[in-house]
Amino acid sequence: MIKILDDVNKIELINKQDKPVCWSLYDRKYSKDNMFRLKGLILPLSNTCKSAWIRCTSSTAGNETKRQKLIILGTGWGSYSVLKSIDKKLFDVVVVSPRNHFLFTPLLCSTTVGTLEFRSIIEPIRNSGFRETEHFHLSYGTSIDFKNKLLRCESVLKPSLQYDLKYDKLVIGVGALSNTFGVPGVDKHAFFLKEVADARKIRNRILHNFELSVQPGIDDSESKRLLHTVIVGGGPTGIEFGAELYDFVKEDVSRLYRKKQHDVHVTLIESNQILGSFDDKLRKYAEKKIKERSRFELKQASVVEVKEDRVILGDGTHIPCGLVVWSTGVAPRQFVKGLEIPKNSRGQILTDKFLHVIGDKNDSVFAVGDCADIDDQPLPCTAQVCDYMYYTCIVPREPIFVLNDLVF
Ligand SMILES: Cc1cc2nc3c(=O)[nH]c(=O)nc-3n(C[C@H](O)[C@H](O)[C@H](O)COP(=O)(O)OP(=O)(O)OC[C@H]3O[C@@H](n4cnc5c(N)ncnc54)[C@H](O)[C@@H]3O)c2cc1C
């Protein structure tokens, strides 16, 4: 008995000299016309076939040389959506990213206070079914030669290791950095909240501050400083982190550090209004909720400097604190800055409505997510936007957000 697999598109019976032989199936002559009906069947070999050899060729094996090489840069919301939705039979999919996992960012804030564990919000990228082991590169993309369709890479593990990868199609989904607006001391003293490593650092600092605050030799004012957290930026991430911290103080600190619970203080600083991109009703509701919370202060001000133990405001006020979490929007990564292609005023790569990078004359490069913007159709930098792109990749509904050349 021989099982003919579904992806077989050629079945031949050959003799030992590698010459085709005639054979019968259920006493019917085998022909190309009925081959499709054979796929997936278990074939009983007739007497006449017993001495023959069967050669089956699968469609994928047959097309190996025809498959295009698609390189995906990044393992975030945008790139992962493409990776999950792409038909891997049609492309050799290669991923290049300094991160070997997909991160479910909406739950990142919960890991800073231990509500969730880090491993619960990540998905290892090697679980994505790569055709070859070497189809994932733990490397940065450093530049693109658009003319010759080459991506320059630099290994994360050995920076002196730099190499080129040739692509037929390239998807750029490198995301963005936290915007520091060039405020002095932010890079050195503030904590960002974009990656698991950032959340881990915040968690360690919170624990460090609480433990130190109860040690002998730490006076009241130092203890209050340690337990004062300043959040800079009233966007969704800043507000969400504040909410997590509030729950942590209410549920855990009151039990674990009972004597210190009244020293805990959170100040959220926003130069404009909180949740600026949200509906007015929602914004007012969030504002009301925050103001109801004791020891949680909302401050409208601009931070002009961050020091190791304080933030300094535009009016000269010094706010002593033990932790500064900085979340004031996004800025382009060095990789994006270095690409000589049209960008918008915020430094994002401009694409057409099919996500083709404007300026790529070969029409082979696409850009998705926070690093990109559709010309004349700006979209917010959210995971939902990336996810919508993913949906329309599979089920194209409108002529927007579709990686047109990659959809079949
Ligand atoms: C704490 C937090 C909470 C959030 N909550 C929500 C929410 O509730 N709802 C929502 O819609 N959005 C939310 N967002 C926003 C959302 O996460 C982003 O809009 C989304 O991650 C953008 O996806 P992206 O693929 O563009 O970038 P990212 O997800 O940031 O991924 C970028 C990828 O590119 C890789 N990379 C970086 N440099 C290079 C390079 N040179 N070469 C190759 N790869 C590179 C990175 O390692 C990463 O894998 C949140 C963001 C944060 C930080």
From TrEMBL:
The UniProt entry, under InterPro entries, shows: FAD/NAD-bd_sf, FAD/NAD-binding_dom, NDH-2
Tell me the protein's name.
FAD/NAD(P)-binding domain-containing protein
The residues covered by the FAD/NAD(P)-binding domain are: 69-382
Q: Any keyword Oxidoreductase?
A: yes
What keywords sit in the KW lines? FAD, Flavoprotein, NAD, Oxidoreductase
Membership in a protein family: Belongs to the NADH dehydrogenase family.
> Entry's Pfam families?
Pyr_redox_2
Q: What is the organism lineage in this UniProt record?
A: Eukaryota, Metazoa, Spiralia, Lophotrochozoa, Mollusca
